[in-house]
């Protein structure tokens, strides 16, 4: 019997894996929180133009994501470096070279330059950045089911990954607060120190360069410390606690092997669409609330600009604290119920914002609700995606790519619709901003939260599982059955949350 330490990922490798998305998280924090603020409130772009830039980025990301997912599964990688880490390296370089240009003034432009010229200038950098971001994200997520096979270890690794996501966001907002603080001390004019404008271009430029520098160091740590394996062991530690790590393979059942799923076979799996809708809803809540929280603070609550750093900071500090209890909580009540608890916090935030349009300092309380709720539903949705993939790691990147495609396009279209319906047709905000961003915050959390709840109900009624392929599909899969003659039948991929802790019940694959 192998030693239990061999069955789990060493602590250093867990750490090195967890920081592999740090650069992406730093950039994503700036992208979603400050892109509209920078282009509309600082550079003076019209609402529609600012929305177009974000939409272009989201569509580029959405198109690149499934294509990269497919190619990441298909290509062998660069020599012995590994296919996932190769794509991660390509993505990292693309992000490092393009991101600093996005949060800076157009080179050669001035106040008289038409906005469509600036729009044309920024678009290529945004497309390159989104390609690199997608390549890094998909390759990093696809490593989870390849590094660990135990379901609770997947949740743990996802939670560690999200913990560093929160640290990345905290870093961005802390640096932003420091820059705004030093700017306030240097100037005496309240119009400059309290309101956003062209004077803040150096702040966002310095913030983007800081993000790139820190992210590059953590990406180096990931590539030095993470070892990509071609295949995981075929069985888990026999002496592991049933409640802690349920084997994916039923050793007592001898049956023909289950075919490896190709990308087209995933499209015939009902659970694929269930998880996709849940993941899309989760990302809509997290990303749209992050995108419009700064506009809500600035134009609805009329707070000083330092609040666009301190309120998101409180949100992600709360999320960071909650990430440490997600593994024991999901083990105790299951992933679905843990997700539901997070969703309740999101809905509580929505009702609070709806009923208190002039909350003032109480906004810190709502920030805690939104931070903990967002962290919980995001970690659980990623854990459910890893559960869906199970031992089908050879096509895992396609699954993550398809999930990400739905959320990127949905987020981009959502922002474009919100920007198009904006009541103000001028570059500066009109009185309509006050009520408009108030109801936007209610809708993107409470409204989308209802959709997420409906999607969660379908998973509770029809648990996540892989449907057996037909005989014709089985023949079409290019598998050498001789290599799998000793493998038992896949008994289930954690078909329900209850089965997380009841290892004696092994569900069969339909």
From TrEMBL:
Q: Does the keyword Magnesium apply?
A: no
- Pfam families (UniProt xref): MFS_2 (PF13347)
Q: Which GO terms describe its biological process?
A: carbohydrate transport; pigment metabolic process involved in pigmentation; regulation of melanin biosynthetic process
- Where does this protein reside within or beyond the cell? Membrane
Q: Which GO terms describe its cellular component?
A: plasma membrane
**GO MF annotations in UniProt:** symporter activity
Instruction: Please name the taxonomic classification of the source.
Output: Eukaryota, Metazoa, Chordata, Craniata, Vertebrata
Asked if Transmembrane helix is a keyword of the record, the answer is yes
Task: Look up and give the organism this protein is from.
Answer: Cyprinus carpio (Common carp)
Please state what the protein is called.
Major facilitator superfamily domain containing 12a
The protein's matches in InterPro entries, at most eight in alphabetical order, are given as: MFS_2, MFS_trans_sf
The record describes its membrane topology as: Multi-pass membrane protein
> Transmembrane residues, as ranges?
22-42, 48-70, 86-103, 115-135, 162-183, 203-224, 307-326, 338-355, 367-386, 398-418, 438-462
Q: Which family does it belong to?
A: Belongs to the major facilitator superfamily.
């Amino acid at each position: 019997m192998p030693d239990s330490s061999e069955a789990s990922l060493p602590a250093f490798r867990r750490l090195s894996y967890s920081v592999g998305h740090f650069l992406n998280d730093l950039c994503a924090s700036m992208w979603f929180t400050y892109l509209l603020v920078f282009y509309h409130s600082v550079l003076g772009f019209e609402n529609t133009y600012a929305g177009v830039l974000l939409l272009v980025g989201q569509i580029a990301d959405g198109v690149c994501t499934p294509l990269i997912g497919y190619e990441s599964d298909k290509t062998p990688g660069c020599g012995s470096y590994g296919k996932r880490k190769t794509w991660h390296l390509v993505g990292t370089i693309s992000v490092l070279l393009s991101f600093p240009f996005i949060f800076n003034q157009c080179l050669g432009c001035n106040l008289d330059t038409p906005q469509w010229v600036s729009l044309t200038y920024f678009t290529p950098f945004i497309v390159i950045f989104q390609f690199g971001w997608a390549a890094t994200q998909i390759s990093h997520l696809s490593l989870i089911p390849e590094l660990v096979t135990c379901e609770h270890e997947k949740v743990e690794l996802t939670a560690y990954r999200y913990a560093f996501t929160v640290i990345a966001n905290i870093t961005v907002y802390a640096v932003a607060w420091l820059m705004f603080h030093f700017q306030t001390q240097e100037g005496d004019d309240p119009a400059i120190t309290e309101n956003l404008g062209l004077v803040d271009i150096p702040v966002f430029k310095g913030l983007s360069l800081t993000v790139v520098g820190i992210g590059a160091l953590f990406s180096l740590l990931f590539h030095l410390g993470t070892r990509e394996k071609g295949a995981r062991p075929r069985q888990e530690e026999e002496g592991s606690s049933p409640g802690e790590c349920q084997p994916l393979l039923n050793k007592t059942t001898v049956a023909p092997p289950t075919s490896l799923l190709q990308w087209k076979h995933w499209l015939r799996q009902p659970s694929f669409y269930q998880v996709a809708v849940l993941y899309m809803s989760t990302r809509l809540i997290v990303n749209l609330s992050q995108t419009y929280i700064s506009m809500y603070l600035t134009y609805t609550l009329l707070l000083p600009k330092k609040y666009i750093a301190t309120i998101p900071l409180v949100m992600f500090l709360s999320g960071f604290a909650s990430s440490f209890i997600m593994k024991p909580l999901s083990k105790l009540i299951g992933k679905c119920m843990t997700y539901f608890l997070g969703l309740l916090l999101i809905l509580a935030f929505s009702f609070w914002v709806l009923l208190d349009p002039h909350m003032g300092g109480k906004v810190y309380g709502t920030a805690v609700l939104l931070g903990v709720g967002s962290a919980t539903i995001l970690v659980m949705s990623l854990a459910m995606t890893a559960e869906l993939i199970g031992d089908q790691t050879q096509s895992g990147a396609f699954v993550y790519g398809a999930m990400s495609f739905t959320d990127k396009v949905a987020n981009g279209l959502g922002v474009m619709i919100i920007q198009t319906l904006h009541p103000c047709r001028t570059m500066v905000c009109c009185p309509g901003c006050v009520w408009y961003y108030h109801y936007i915050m209610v809708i993107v959390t409470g409204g989308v939260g209802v959709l997420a709840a409906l999607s969660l109900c379908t998973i509770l009624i029809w648990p996540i599982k892989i449907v057996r392929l037909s005989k014709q599909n089985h023949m079409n899969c290019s598998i050498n059955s001789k290599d799998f003659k000793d493998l038992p039948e896949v008994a289930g991929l954690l078909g329900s949350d209850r089965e997380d802790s009841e290892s004696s019940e092994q569900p069969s694959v339909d």
